[in-house]
Amino acid sequence: MEGVAIDGSSSGTGSSDSGEQKPRRGRRVRMTGAERREQLLDIGRTLFAEKGFEGTSVEEIAAKAGVSKPVVYEHFGGKEGLYAVVVDREMRQLLEGVTGALTAGHPRELLEQAAFALLDYIENYTDGFRILVRDSPVAQSTGTFASLISDIATQVEDILGMEFKNRGFDPKLAPLYAQALVGSVALTGQWWLDVRKPDKAEVAAHLVNLAWHGLDGLEQKPRLIGHRKN
Question: For bias kind Low complexity, which ranges apply (predicted)?
Fold first, then answer.
């Protein structure tokens, strides 16, 4: 049988010859299919974050859940299926968090919101972020972490496009700058994941400081000063 919760109540009691009451037998309550699936996803997320895909086994997942291996296969078809669902959920969580945060009108505040959204995700869904930044051996419907960063950059691209147009820059270059900005935030986030210093607000402030003032001093036609020109 699948692992179950124990309820201390039971119908029927007994007494020993000495008149003492016998302990009541526990009543087994089976998890629903949906509850079991969520349990396996939670366990899988923790193990994949700690050990990676290759270092995690179906046997360990099943043991942590208190079930047999076939239960894992029944719900996900195997470790690959469980991993794919975990990654897809985390990628959607991050993308929705970033896109949902972009609500301000001023471009600088929008950059702040985007930086905070990523740092919030790292802080609140640490296991998920650890899984996302690893090279995934399993294809997901939502793509890879690189494609996710590209999706987020597309949101920022619209912000930069308006600013470029207002300042007389070529708006066709906005995608390039958006990738550069979002990529720098993502890489900084990976570093901050382990050090957690300085605090989140200060990290966000420095990221936006670099991005905003870098854009503020942007040259319309940047030139190379080294010997290499192509």
Answer: 7-18
Give me the torsion for CA of 166, 168, 173, 179, rounded to 10°.
-40
**Could you list the pLDDT tens digit for every one of the 230 residues in the chain?**
444 443 444 444 444 454 555 555 555 568 899 999 999 999 999 999 999 999 999 999 999 999 999 999 999 999 999 999 999 999 889 888 888 888 867 878 888 888 899 899 999 999 999 998 875 666 555 567 778 888 888 878 887 888 788 878 888 898 998 888 888 888 898 899 889 899 999 999 999 999 888 877 888 888 888 888 88
Q: Does residue 94 contact residue 131 with C-beta atoms inside 8 Å?
A: no
Q: Is 47 exposed, middle or buried (0-12, 13-18, 19+ CB in 10 A)?
A: buried
Residue 15 forms part of a structural domain: no
Q: Are 94 and 148 in contact (CB under 8 A)?
A: yes
Q: Is residue 13 part of a domain?
A: no
Q: Could you say which DSSP state residue 8 is in? A: S
The domain containing residue 164 runs over which residues?
33-216
Assess if residue 226 is contained within a domain: no
CATH number, domain containing residue 145? 1.10.357.10
Q: Is residue 186 one of the residues assigned to a domain?
A: yes
* Counted domains in the chain: 1
Quote the strand ranges of the chain, DSSP E.
4-7, 27-30
Q: Phi first, then psi: give them for residue 55, nearest 5 degrees.
A: -80, -5
